[in-house]
């Protein structure tokens, strides 16, 4: 491969695959209002679909990683790509939210869970020495670029063409990958289907889905009675999954994943910090567009433009952070990253009101981007460094599983906190307005919540005399809820700082 003029064929294919997967995670957040209107759905439903896309990837990641050992990495990659392509077609042609859920969250999610681990092993097996370092650098850089340009790509397509083209354009990449699939090398299967840990796969998938669904149900008070059941059941099943995997390892049977890795202090804390870092990032990318499109009435393109400073800063400082690691310990860069990101969310918490403009967000989003960029540059490397060569596949599967779980939890948890904050703010807003009406405060509140769920499109189901006050009541409630939610984001990032203190230094780790 190294002597071929096309020696970078494998990494270019891997980069195209990772690019379209990452693009989905960030491009569609700016299209929330358009999706609500065109698919006749609600904000909570779109939030659920975004969260479930990352959740399905996380839930099926360990299974997708293990299937490589049965089918071979090339075949696993190509099957995942076909499933992903069927998802993009379904999402492109969606006529309702259910179809978008099936195409984007389910089919694309399962496809991505097979593609992501395979790209890691394909790149790792195709290069040696400096070429390997370069290949993984390119691969990681393209993933960062995909996340950075996602909001602008989504904004351009949604505002000037159609959000469907975000998905439709991905088929071009799929076709190119299939045309150049001969560059991909196959690996010899080391397991048979009978060796697959089906019970472990089911336990891991069901447990994670129950936990996130429980959080998503918090948006509606009438569903709160089911929340503790779902989250509790999910937590119990996850503990059972860990016990089951440990039992299989002790018996000398093939586990779904080598969870003994989690006992390693660096690997365990690295994954914990990855989850903590992903929660504010996902929450930030979800609630900022909700605020901008509801309160400041920005288009999808302008929303993407507002997120651009953060995107560029994250990309630049992930590259700077990688250079810094040659002179500074990763542990300290991670600690500083959490503190700077927390400073960014603290600054942002003070800028939200009904008169907020894009320019007001720039200082906070840039500071946040610096912190997140530094974190992204270190967490993968420090976590993977704890795994031996024979554990790389399992380590990569677990890390990607936890990272996507963090992203899903961020969209679900932070989105729920925002909606609950809005819900609480509406009550005092209605009472302050003091307009007499034949509807109770609760009925008016429900009408306004329904209007928020529709991204303030159409007409609110409230008395006509209250309609002139509705926008101000809602916008004030959203602004107040944004401040509270960003306070929570700051606390989560400070928690990350505290947990990163316990990462061993190089001297101790060595």
UniProtKB/TrEMBL annotation:
Membrane-spanning ranges: 9-32, 44-64, 76-95, 101-124, 136-157, 163-184, 196-218, 224-245, 266-292, 298-320, 332-352, 358-376, 405-430, 485-503
Membrane topology according to the record: Multi-pass membrane protein
GO molecular function: transmembrane transporter activity
Gene3D superfamilies: MFS general substrate transporter like domains, Multidrug resistance protein D
Lineage of the organism: Archaea, Methanobacteriati, Methanobacteriota, Methanomada group, Methanobacteria
Locations listed in the record: Membrane
Entry GO terms, CC: membrane
Pfam family membership, one: MFS_1
The keyword Membrane appears for this protein: yes
Top-level taxon: Archaea
The protein's name: Major facilitator superfamily protein
Keyword 4Fe-4S: no
UniProt domain Major facilitator superfamily (MFS) profile: residue ranges: 10-508
Keywords, in A-Z order: Membrane, Transmembrane, Transmembrane helix, Transport
């Amino acid at each position: 491969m190294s002597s071929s003029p096309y020696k970078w064929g494998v990494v270019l294919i891997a980069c195209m695959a990772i690019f379209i997967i990452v693009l989905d995670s960030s491009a569609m957040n700016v299209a929330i209002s358009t999706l609500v209107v065109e698919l006749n759905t609600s904000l909570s439903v779109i939030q659920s679909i975004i969260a479930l896309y990352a959740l399905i990837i996380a839930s099926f990641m360990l299974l997708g990683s293990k299937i490589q050992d049965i089918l071979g990495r090339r075949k696993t990659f190509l099957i995942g790509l076909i499933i992903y392509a069927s998802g993009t077609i379904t999402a492109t042609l969606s006529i309702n939210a259910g179809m978008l859920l099936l195409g984007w969250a389910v089919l694309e999610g399962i496809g991505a869970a097979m593609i992501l681990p395979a790209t890691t092993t394909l790149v790792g097996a195709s290069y040696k020495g400096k070429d390997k370092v370069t290949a993984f650098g390119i691969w990681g850089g393209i993933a960062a670029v995909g996340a950075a340009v996602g909001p602008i790509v989504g904004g351009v397509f949604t505002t000037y063409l159609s959000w469907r083209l975000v998905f439709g354009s991905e088929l071009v990449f799929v076709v190119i990958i299939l045309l150049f699939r001969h560059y991909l090398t196959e690996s010899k299967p080391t397991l048979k289907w009978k060796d697959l840990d089906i019970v472990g796969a089911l336990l891991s998938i069901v447990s994670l889905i129950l936990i996130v669904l429980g959080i998503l149900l918090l948006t509606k008070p009438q569903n709160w009675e089911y929340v503790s059941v779902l989250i509790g059941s999910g937590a119990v099943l996850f503990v059972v999954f860990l016990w089951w995997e440990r039992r299989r390892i002790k018996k000398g049977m093939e586990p779904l994943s080598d969870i003994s890795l989690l006992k390693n202090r660096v690997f365990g804390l690295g994954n914990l910090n990855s989850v903590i870092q992903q929660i504010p990032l996902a929450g930030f990318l979800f609630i900022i567009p909700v605020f901008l499109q509801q309160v400041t009435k920005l288009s999808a393109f302008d929303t993407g433009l507002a997120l651009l400073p953060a995107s560029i800063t994250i990309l630049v400082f992930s590259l700077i952070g990688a250079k810094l690691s040659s002179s500074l310990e990763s542990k300290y860069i991670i600690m500083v990253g959490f503190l700077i990101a927390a400073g960014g969310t603290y600054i942002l918490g003070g800028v939200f009101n009904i008169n907020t403009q894009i320019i007001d967000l720039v200082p906070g989003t840039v500071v946040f981007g610096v912190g997140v960029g530094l974190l992204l540059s270190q967490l993968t490397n420090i976590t993977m460094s704890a795994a031996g060569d024979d554990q790389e596949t399992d380590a990569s599967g677990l890390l990607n599983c936890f990272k996507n779980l963090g992203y899903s939890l961020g969209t679900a948890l932070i989105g729920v906190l925002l909606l609950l904050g809005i819900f609480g703010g509406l009550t005092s807003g209605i009472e302050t307005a003091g307009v007499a009406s034949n509807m109770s405060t609760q009925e008016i509140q429900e009408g306004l919540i329904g209007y928020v769920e529709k991204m303030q499109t159409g007409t609110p189901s409230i008395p006509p005399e209250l309609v002139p006050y509705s926008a101000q009541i809602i916008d004030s409630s959203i602004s107040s809820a944004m401040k509270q939610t960003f306070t929570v984001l700051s606390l989560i990032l400070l928690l990350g700082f505290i947990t990163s203190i316990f990462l061993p230094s190089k001297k101790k780790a060595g």
